[in-house]
Amino acid sequence: MSSVDQLNFSVPRRTLLVTGGAGFIGANFVHHWCTNYPEDRVIVLDALTYAGNRSNLAHWEGKENFQFIQGDICDRSLVDQILQTEAIDTIAHFAAESHVDRSILGPAAFVQTNVIGTFTLLEAFLQHWRAKEQPEHFRFLHVSTDEVYGSLNTDDQPFTESTPYAPNSPYSASKAGSDHLVRAYYHTYKLPTIITNCSNNYGPYQFPEKLIPLMCINCLLGKQLPVYGDGQNIRDWLYVGDHCTALDLVIHQGLPGETYNIGGNNEVKNIDLVQMLCQLMDELAVDLPIRPSQELITFVQDRPGHDRRYAIDASKIATQLGWTPAVTVTEGLRHTVKWYLMHRSWWKSLLSKQYQEYYNKVYLS
Ligand code: NAD
Ligand code: TYD
């Protein structure tokens, strides 16, 4: 499913610190990097919150070029120590509190990890970069979201890199704050930072409370498929493998101080996406308690402040770095549904008491 063929340049060896590498996109990125650049070293720093899962990286454990460190990005002395002892030259920063619904229930953790954590990494990396006499190849890649741009109406043009920030949820506000800090460290100190703002990712290893895995799993459990509001909200869906290919290009060829939007060219209404998932489940799953799955669709109370539409104009990364998404939503959803069907023990182990408590708070209160 990946389009690594797009990456036909010569690459220097790197030592990467991947923050949040045990989460959804981070783990896919580690798989991508370790597979394509076995000469590089990858150090993962992850606090293993509810969303982090060390088993996502099991394939690389014990390999010479891979190391996992459990810890918090807000822990400055730990970050300093890793940067120095591992001789890190590249930070790929994924660690974050990432779920809008959780940010509505408890925003404090979002400010702590997303703002203070990013600030801690920037300070530590600045000191480290200066101590090494500011090598040119150092990079700080900050992985952010299109949600910082706010909400679009149906007829609005998609977000470009110069769309003004207008975040509407505690999650997107905290990501916007971190983006501003990352930008400021380039402009003030010339620290070689790059920001990417991407649309909704989907694919293997996504935690079961996000829309696509939640719907797949609820179909298999015969539970309601809760669609917020009227189901007409629009998201642009980006296959996670395509996202990793884009981040790879940005690290190797992106310009410090720049922002790149990354989108999937796949705008879909939520209700249409859920219908597509139901059809795939009916076709691919042999053991559904309720069939057809669409009987489980239930419209529930809308999320407070629910953004209506996100859409990305990804022409900058297309023209400047030659990246375009390779996976259509039809292919990507089929692959993803098959993955959840074949990895039942993976997601079943995540349906803990805490998951149930979270679920009840969001859907049953
Ligand atoms: P995720 O919630 O699946 O994973 C986050 C990871 O960060 C987890 O492994 C968690 O344990 C770790 N983490 C959280 N707090 C930490 C801390 N204080 N110190 C160290 N590690 C910590 O998130 P994801 O979906 O993989 O998203 C990764 C990044 O991409 C985030 O920055 C998110 O804002 C951004 N993003 C995600 C999407 C999406 O659709 N998932 C879209 C746009 C941008
Ligand atoms: P989500 O995966 O939480 O991503 P985000 O809010 O960051 O876009 O949700 C994607 C869309 O699906 C969003 O419009 C909210 C909607 N949604 C539902 O309708 N029901 C659900 O149970 C969930 C989790 C999301």
Characterize the structure shown.
- The chain has 365 residues and is α/β, with parallel strands linked by helices.
- The chain has a domain at 4-205 and 238-268 and 308-328: Rossmann fold (3-Layer(aba) Sandwich).
- It has twelve helices and twelve strands.
- A seven-stranded parallel beta sheet has the order 3-2-1-4-5-6-10, sandwiched between helices. Strands 7-9-11 form a three-stranded mixed beta sheet. A two-stranded parallel sheet has the order 8-12.
- Strand 5, helix 5 (170-189) and strand 6 form a beta-alpha-beta unit.
- Helix 1 crosses helix 7 (240-253).
- It is globular.
- Bound molecules: nicotinamide-adenine-dinucleotide (NAD) and thymidine-5'-diphosphate.
Instruction: Give me the oligomer status.
Output: single chain
First-residue to last-residue Cα separation: 40 Å
The number of helices is 12
CATH class of one domain: Alpha Beta
Mean pLDDT: 96
Q: Could you estimate the helical fraction of the residues in percent? A: 40-55%
The general outline is globular
Largest sheet: 7 strands, parallel
Strand order of the largest sheet: 3-2-1-4-5-6-10
GO molecular function: dTDP-glucose 4,6-dehydratase activity
Cofactor: NAD(+)
Catalytic activity: dTDP-alpha-D-glucose = dTDP-4-dehydro-6-deoxy-alpha-D-glucose + H2O
Keywords: Lyase, NAD
